């Protein structure tokens, strides 16, 4: 995928049941910092998986380079150690190649 193409990432995070509210609070801080500091962040959403102690993140950045910069940003790295206490396993990342030659199906409305 070309570095100038939009970059999508889907990730999951298993959370200790007693820490779900803390995780929402924590990642709300991360989202606010990302929205404020990173214009290249186009989508930054997370959802609670029904019936599981798990969240799913959907992120879109202007490029893979911008996404990697996000991962290394001070607001992400600075909070990294804090969130480790709330989880049961590390993030599982699923980078998505959205180039036309990798399209399997579906549609997008303009």
Automatic annotation (TrEMBL):
Pfam families: ABM
Domain of life of the organism encoding this protein: Eukaryota
InterPro entries registered for this protein in UniProt: ABM_dom, Dimeric_a/b-barrel
Residues of the ABM domain: 7-101
Protein name per the record: ABM domain-containing protein
Organism for this UniProt entry: Cryphonectria parasitica (strain ATCC 38755 / EP155)
